[in-house]
Amino acid sequence: MDGQKRVLETPRGDSQLTPLWQKRNFYHYPFVMLSDIISSRHLLSLLVKRDIATRYRRAYLGFSWAILEPLLLAGVYSVVFTILVGSSDPLYAAKVVLGVIGWSLFSRSVTSSAKSLTNSVNLFQFARVPKSVFATNGPITNTILALFSLLSVIPFFIIHDLPVTVNLLMVPLWLFFISFTGWSIGLLVAPISCKIPDMMNIINFLVRAGFFLSPVMWTYDMFSRRFGEGWQSVVAHLNPTIVPLTEIRDAVLGTSSNIPSWGYSMCFAISVIFYLFGSIVFMRSAHKAVVNI
Amino acid sequence: MSIVMKLENVTLEYPIARRYRKENVKPSGIRNVSFELKEGDVLGIIGRNGSGKSTLLKMMAGVFPPNDGVISSRGAVSLLAGVGVGFNKELTGRENAYLYGALMGRSRKQIDELIDEIQSFAELTHHFDRPFRTFSSGMRARLGISVATAFRPDLLLIDEVLGVGDVSFREKSQKRVKDLIETSGSVIIVSHSLGMLKEMCTRMILIEDGEVIMDDEPGAVITKYAEILKN
Description:
heterodimer; B: alpha/beta; 2 domains; six-stranded mixed β-sheet; three-stranded antiparallel β-sheet; 7 helices; 36% helix
């Protein structure tokens, strides 16, 4: 096939016979995936509404859980960390809340998009639907819930008299960036996990390990004070959540963490590389992976 | 009559499980299938269990990609199979109808226009706005059939979906599908009900081990199939 793979073609409804599957070169896949998602926005919006509506539908406290969850987790982490390390930072609890919100978004985006093919395989055996939409609705739902969870930092604004600045507008953008990166990693993993079921166990382990390697319970300043800008810093910046989690904290709490410019470049480059690889692997393999399950 | 679907040397082989690879097991699937479907054709596909009928139908619906060959179509293709797959237990019947319609590629406007008809055909009355998890299995099947048959495609593909619900609903849904067959541009039916196929189809094909071994008028194909079953 000269390196070309087939991509599901959207029916045009015109008078010409159209091949159901078009041959495409691999470098078209990142664009084809975005185009698929945009053309299926009606289905995507219904799936997101379904996920939001059903997430807490049977819980007595409903959507309050989106706020309570990070607050309770942050409470536990703060107490444990303060006892272990003896942190005297009055804003430490707020930093943990923001870290938990950002990290939860990342981990949920990775796992929801990684499980998208195996979770909906029954549907994919009967319906001609763009599979990329099913990999995308989870990360979008989680982004919306993460934005809602941000209400949990309001008490810190009142207690610590934090300033309300224009920088707060950056928070949704950084949350979107975290979700985008998690989605891209999930795209890469989804077809592989159809063939190798152990892949999801590996991802679950990496997500748990990543929690400790990301600035959730610790901060960028703590890391900088300990390791400076040596090789450890370069290695740490391979983690694509370090910059956005730190930026979210800085934007909300009005602090400045002095992330070097190469740190931002690495963060964006890693995210884009994951998307390029993720979309190519997903578009090449998703259809066959579902047939072969 | 213009062509609405064309298959050229279409092949799909399912992978063989690792433990059978050394035993020279022939992969199942579809091999080198070619035919054309013209506007107004009602094509029946018959064959033994596991011969590849449903796989072929799913390939024509764009659900499974071929390993080789080309499938071309014109207009909206709709597959009536696995009715109800995709419903969410926590959503209401109405919400599920919108979701299922969207999964079939329909716009919100198209579903809006038909939502009352969907509710009325499914005979769900006030249950339509209750969570799907409270539905009985019959109610779930009725909702599935109701949404799946509400839209008129240019090419309708049907895979044994008429045996759901109680006797009266089964008769009602069979009538609905017959109406759909009459009003759709072209139809392909996979079924083991030879009497129904002979009555409805203008043409039939017989599949054996993933290959089309006969493509002719219904009477001749059914006779050949009976001979294969005897042997």
